[in-house]
Design brief:
87 residues; alpha+beta; 3-stranded antiparallel β-sheet
Length: 87
């Protein structure tokens, strides 16, 4: 199981409404449980976000890096990492 550090959990808690119509978690523990259940991933940079979507079979042929990083399911952690949550 992936481990989500406090920074990842805090970003998800703060920005979860960009993906969901209402909060799905209110504590770090709830956020971690939710992210584990969703099989969310943390990647180390924009290139890995691109690779993730490509490997998952998402049609990204007409998207640029900015489009992918602006996707609702992509959360910038602020330290170069990104959290990807599939809803």
């Amino acid at each position: 199981m992936p481990e989500f550090d406090e920074k990842v959990l805090d970003v998800f808690l703060e920005k979860q409404l960009q993906l969901f119509p209402e909060e799905v978690a209110t504590t770090r523990e709830e956020a971690e449980d939710f992210l584990e259940e969703c099989m969310a991933v943390v990647v180390k940079g924009a290139k890995e976000v691109w690779t993730y979507f490509d490997e998952e079979g998402v049609d990204i042929s007409e998207m640029n890096e900015a489009d992918i990083l602006d996707a609702d399911e992509v959360f910038a952690i602020g330290d170069g990492r990104f959290l990807i949550v599939e809803a």
